[in-house]
Amino acid sequence: MVTHTVSERNQTGIINDDKALAWATASNVLDPEIPCVTVGELGIVRDIELIEDEVTVYVSPTYSGCPAVLAIEMAIETELLKVGFRPNIKRILSPPWTTDWISDVGREKLRKFGITPPVNASSKMGLFGKVNVECPRCSSNNTEKLSEFGSTACKAQYRCKNCLEPFDYFKCI
Ligand SMILES: [Zn+2]
């Protein structure tokens, strides 16, 4: 018999038990600031526990002080209530959330949305310790930082010198 973890079962789209349904429901909540990606794809939902109809969802806040955290927790609660669970949200602060937890699917969606996804920790530093930020439209590395803060505090504003388009870069932490 092949056994799957809850997250694997969710990826195959076969939801055949309550824990998988709770996982899918919680992780499919959209990020309020970047509504093209789910909190599951951002790696914010870390784990769930199900005891009878009570679901405990372990959530790792992204940027500390990001006002989106509360909105995300409330949205997860609302969605779980809709499908009949009693939600209980627990914040995990350690280990702290890192942009490395964003899934490949999440990164691709960010790029299509016009936001350059965070560079992985392993390739974060280029020559002279400078972050190499690629344009999400034309993939050029010829970019410049306009402002440390983009549309939200979590992003920096950049401009591509090749296609001349401004874009947001999801900052690494
Ligand atoms: Zn460009």
Summarize the structure.
With 173 residues, the protein is of the alpha/beta class. Helices cover 24% and strands 21% of the residues. The protein has 2 domains: 6-97, 2-Layer Sandwich (GMP Synthetase, Chain A, domain 3); 103-170, no CATH class.
Task: Explain this structure.
It is a single chain. The chain has helices at 6-12, 18-27, 68-82, 104-112; strands at 45-51, 54-59, 86-91, 115-116, 143-147, 155-160, 166-170. With 173 residues, the protein is an alpha/beta fold. The protein folds into 2 domains: 6-97, Fe-S cluster assembly (FSCA) (GMP Synthetase, Chain A, domain 3, 2-Layer Sandwich); 103-170, no CATH class. The strands form 2 sheets. Strands 4-7-6-5 form a 4-stranded mixed beta sheet. A 3-stranded mixed beta sheet has the order 1-2-3, with helices on one face. The protein is elongated, with a radius of gyration of 18 Å.
Determine the mean pLDDT. 83
Q: Strand order within the widest sheet?
A: 4-7-6-5
Q: What would you say the CATH architecture of the largest domain is? A: 2-Layer Sandwich
| Number of separate domains | 2
End-to-end span in angstroms? 41 Å
SSE pattern: HHEEHEHEEEE
Question: What summary fits the major beta sheet?
Answer: 4 strands, mixed
Quickly count the helices.
Answer: 4
* CATH third-tier fold name of the largest domain: GMP Synthetase, Chain A, domain 3
CATH class of the largest domain: Alpha Beta
- Name the ligand types: zinc ion
Assembly state of the chains shown: single chain
Gyration radius, rounded: 18 Å
Helix content: 10-25%
| Beta strand count | 7
Instruction: Point out poorly predicted stretches.
Output: 1-14, 122-128
Strand content: 15-25%
Class computed from helices, strands and strand pairing: alpha/beta
Gross geometry: elongated
Classified in CATH, the superfamily of the largest domain is Fe-S cluster assembly (FSCA)
